[in-house]
Amino acid sequence: SQIETMRSPDGSKKHPARTCDDLRSCHPSKKSGEYWVDPNQGCVEDAIKAFCNMETGETCIAAKPAIIPRKTWWTSRSSDLKPIWYGLDMNRGSQFVYGDNQSPNTVITQMTFLRLLSKEASQNITYHCKNSIGYMDDQAKNLKKAVMLKGANDHDIRAEGNNRFRYTVISDTCSKHNGNVGSTIFEYKTQNVARLPIIDIAPVDVGGADQEFGVEIGPVCFV
């Protein structure tokens, strides 16, 4: 009945849930998939689409676009080992945007409310490389050329240093300059939910004409 649906929204566009965790509590038999959520509990019109992980109760928002194609985004003669931000420094680059293209502001607002309702956030970023170090430099045996990430509150998330701002690496085949295409998967989990989503990425080992990179931006998940 309508009263029932108002009390325990089913995640439809007409009856969005507050979060995926709420949806899971009210409808434990629902399968993981795409649902509508409305964290600020405003009018139904500003609900956003999310992926609900019904095993964990996570509310996940996808990046749009989620793929940056692999190519030579940056050429430079400088041999300085410094991070070059894709969004801030590269001419054709831009910072990452999440949710629906139609209403990015709605998503920003809803994500702010989603953070207030969440205790933890996590996200994976995949760096696709050709002749560009992602994490470990196999030759130098150090992390000086490791990619840097930028969090939503402008904090840099990196390979070394303070462990609160350190990502973990799930797999890494970007450690050599051998002409092969590889990938490095970064994961960042935090209880300071204001740090996510990731909004920019900075490779250090770029600039050569034979050096390529691309990025796969995983969804940001809150629970």
TrEMBL record:
It holds the Pfam family COLFI. Its main location: secreted. GO terms for molecular function: extracellular matrix structural constituent; metal ion binding. InterPro entries: Fib_collagen_C. GO terms for cellular component: collagen trimer; extracellular region. Residues 1-223 form the Fibrillar collagen NC1 domain. It is found in: Secreted. Residues 10-21 have a biased composition (Basic and acidic residues). Transmembrane segments: none annotated. Signal peptide: none annotated. Residues 1-21 are annotated as: Disordered. Keywords: Calcium, Collagen, Disulfide bond, Extracellular matrix, Hydroxylation, Metal-binding, Repeat, Secreted. This is Fibrillar collagen NC1 domain-containing protein. It comes from Micrurus surinamensis (Surinam coral snake).
